[in-house]
Amino acid sequence: MKIINPATGAVLADVTSDNAKSVRNKYERAAAAQTAWAATPIRKRLAAIRSFGELITERAPELARTLTLEVGKPIRQSRNELKGLAGRIEFFLEQSERVLREQKVHTDTDGVMQERIAHEPLGVVANISAWNYPYFVGSNVFVPALAAGNTVLYKPSEFATLTGMHIADLLHAAGIPDDVFIPVIGDGKIGAMLLRQPVDGVFFTGSYATGVKIAASTGRRMIKTQLELGGKDPVYVAEDVDISAAAAAVSDGAFYNTGQSCCSVERIYVHAKIYEAFVKAFVAEVKNMKQGNPQDEATYIGAITRRPQLAVLQKQVADARKKGARLLAGGSVPKGKGKGNWFEPTVFADADHRMMLMRDESFGPIIGLQAVAGDDEAVALMNDTAYGLTAGVYTADEKRAKKILRRVDAGTVYWNCCDRVSPRLPWSGRKASGMGLTLSTYGIQAFTRPKAWHLRRA
Ligand code: NAD
Question: For ligand 1, atom 39, which residue shows the shortest CA distance?
């Protein structure tokens, strides 16, 4: 399998993909190792995870360079991701022992009957991952899965294979046995082969289209299946904001990671009273964003990781233009970029819900803005979507923000912020954004099965 640099089209490496036989063999190794791993004292399991975090921090400059080379993410943003990973690991280290401890929940007054809850690992879990934040979306699964005593078959995205291999090497160097965490290398076909193994849980991050296939393949087996899928995340900007501060924050939410985040801002509704002023400030922000070599410290907009996405973006631009949106920045593939995948940061004003731009996940540096008459219209439009990952409101009035956000059907809501993930809060999509959750203490329990103990001293 060839690993391509999306910024230049150059071949970075040639790696050997798995096949049906090797996937089977990896499953058997993971299954054989699981009981002993679950019996390893939790402090020892966590010590290995702590060492993994330390190795990540030590090797961050080199890991960031690789990530930038293979996904085209601007180098500063790659470093931010690695820094953020250390924070997530810290959260799991602090919480896992308490969350996974067996609990006594009831004792009769005479002490005869006792009830307890034990948290047993699922067994062997498949972790099928996306490329856009490979350290985040991978570790949200494999760190708590390993902490809870599962063995993990980890399939990085074919667009983040080198990073996936680094992750495996560092986990092994940190003391996670080779058969407890096993990388499975390859594209979607290899992912499908992995799902044909009798795994005990499937934790998937990726697109809605693939999520549907995964759910269909695991549905008959009654195994735990979690799907973290796409989004079409809205932000509403009310008329009482500081316009330039809001424009700076929301444009960052829309264009950070070159718009390739599941929780990127993908639609913006602006109160009619400040609409033109906000659009002007927003476009000025976007025109200031430096697009260029992702290894350059000043670069803010990098390459598009997957080439087919260019056609999706071009289609959205053509559709928005045809239906009357005003193109105020970008709109096409920049010239002189050779075989790399590039798209100009693109802004449309006067967008509306007849347009693909406001309905389909863009997953790239493109955004539509629409004027609204007030909060009710904003809520109706925010909810007019197949997705339900995040939604944000910018207003000076906290009460008003909460009133609006209570009515919005999304797993995560933001007041005066956006495109933000915290390890302390559950990350869950509604509707086509998926099912299940990662992060928070719920995201540790997710990798366990409860066993209910009824104990009677006869
Ligand atoms: P994708 O669906 O193309 O691929 C995801 C993974 O699934 C890859 O490892 C791929 O090889 C594998 N795969 C593909 N077909 C398969 C099959 N039939 N069986 C098993 N595995 C298969 O998605 P992507 O392009 O890697 O990621 C982008 C998408 O992920 C976007 O929609 C984005 O919003 C979403 N995402 C969601 C979250 C979240 O937390 N909700 C986080 C990051 C990305």
Answer: 228
Q: Which residue's CA is the closest to the ligand 1 atom numbered 43?
A: 262
pLDDT at 75: 98
Q: Name 398's Cβ contacts closer than 8 Å, sequence gap at least 6.
A: 415
Ligand 1 centroid, distance to 129 Cα (angstroms): 6
Atom of ligand 1 nearest to the CA of 156: 9
Q: From the CB of 309, is ligand 1 less than 6 Å away?
A: no
CATH tag for 2-229+433-456 (out of 3.40.605.10, 3.40.190.10, 3.30.460.80, 3.40.50.300): 3.40.605.10
Q: From atom 27 of ligand 1, which residue's Cα is the shortest distance away?
A: 206
φ and ψ at 70, to 5 degrees?
-90, -20
For 107-157, what is each residue's pLDDT tens digit? 998 989 999 999 999 999 999 999 999 999 999 999 999 999 999 999 999
Residues 363-393 as b/e (b if ≥16 CB within 10 A, e otherwise) read bbbbbbbbbbeebebbbebbeebebbbbbbb
CB 313 within 8 A of CB 305: no
Instruction: Kindly list the domain boundaries of the chain, sorted by start residue.
Output: 2-229+433-456, 233-422
Name the pTM for this structure.
0.97
Tell me how far apart the alpha carbons of residues 440 and 427 are, in angstroms, rounded to a whole number. 8
pLDDT given for residue 309 in this prediction: 98
* CATH homologous superfamily for the domain 233-422: Aldehyde Dehydrogenase; Chain A, domain 2 (3.40.309.10)
**188 within ligand 1 shell (Cβ under 6 A):** yes
Distance from Cα 109 to the centre of ligand 1, integer Å: 52
Of the candidates 262, 266, 344, 418, the residue annotated as catalytic is 262
Residues of the chain with pLDDT under 50: none
